[in-house]
Amino acid sequence: MRIAIGQLWQETNTFNPLPTTRADFEPLGIYSGDELIAKMADVNEPGGFIQHVQKWPERPQLVGLARFAAWPSGPATREAIAGMLHDMTDALCHALPVDAVYLALHGALVADGMPDVEGELLRQVRELVGPAIPVVASLDLHTNITRQMVERADALVLYHTAPHIDVFETGQRAAKVMRRLLVDRVRPVTAFQKIPMVVPAERANTQDPASVSFGIRQFLQHVETDPEVLSIGLATVQPWLDIPEMGSAVVATATSQANAEQLCRELADQVWRRRREYLPELTELADAVRLAHENPAGLVVLGDAGDSTNSGSTGEATAILSELVKHDWPRPAFATMVAPYAVEEARQRGVGAKYAAQLGGVRDQRFSKPITLDVEVANLFDARFTLTGHIGKNMPIDMGPAAVLRHGNVHLLVTTRSGPHFAPDFFRAAGLDPFTASVLVAKSPCGFRAAYQERAKKIYMVRSPGCAPSDFWNYRYERIPRPLWPWDEINDWAVKPPIVA
Ligand SMILES: [Zn+2]
Question: What is the pTM of this model?
């Protein structure tokens, strides 16, 4: 019994002007063959899948295809995607015959002229293995599920949590589904329903009993305990995608068509009726910084969704930083930025150097306003650490050479590459303790809560500029299907008979 495994992972943001090239997939590790199995054996969804399968009595042979993962950013170049699809399918050709294929995907990867990269990969894989070989894919909760993806895979297994603290478990669930298909010879039916809505991530916290997402997560997890249901998921898509098949979706794979359809209907209806509960309450930027300053005891976290590097923004916005430096902070104030040019300058000048740094407006000329700031180089470091928490389990991160630029008690961490700028271990890599700060800016709309919710005295979601604005429907989109809520008010939509594949 041979099972092929591959990974293609990036959350694309089409507002981000920086193209994602093949080189952008290198820092997180490009692997193939046995190296893929060895390196990913305890990491993210592939790790969950590998460890589950390794416990099967049949002892299947795991065959690594290719692993490509890049931090969220702008659309991939056509050349990069063509190369990666080729590498993946070429490896599969050499691996044939295989008994099953597992792909760990994000589901919101967009390339120049190719809005559904994962659908295309699944199509090519299906063409190579034929209709009888089980193909299972795992997906992020912010995936844009397309008809192509549903039709080419036997089952899609989505994260159930946001913050995404179940990445490893999602791989395990995918393996469990694979076992039903491959060993138990179950022939399931998938029902799929697109919902004409896109919601912000801020309030979609599946761990918060006050959030609409809490009950939905409980529902999904409960439904999957039914042996007649292989998988069920809600995809509240990444909002910053200007593509034709854009929209939320529900998908259910069960042993009977009636069951799959019924679950799909029930879930779609519930989500549609409660859509307004996702709209976030934002604090104006200057107010948020002032409120943080007035709160001298304990840590205040400012959620910078607009420039969230987790949502594929450039990480170069200067708006919150400009406000932070107006205040004297009793303890450190931590802000972050992706600014390779600022890192380079700090390295050339050395620790202790004082100068006027030019920051912003280089990588992102739309949302990032250039500023000049008097700084001292407080530290030079490599932004390398292991991410466990939101989005990662034992996931090696490398954001490249980095520096801490200090202005008064404001510590600005500048990195060469994008990454999880919210992660406590990122601050620790710089020799700083995030939990001792007065205020910390987390470039993330919701995921940062996994690390800070319990320890922050106060959290404000800030109305901040960037490629991932919370009120995305106020921005210009040209390709999305209309009507689509909340761009359009829709009063007459009712759940339709789901598409069955
Ligand atoms: Zn996500």
Answer: 0.98
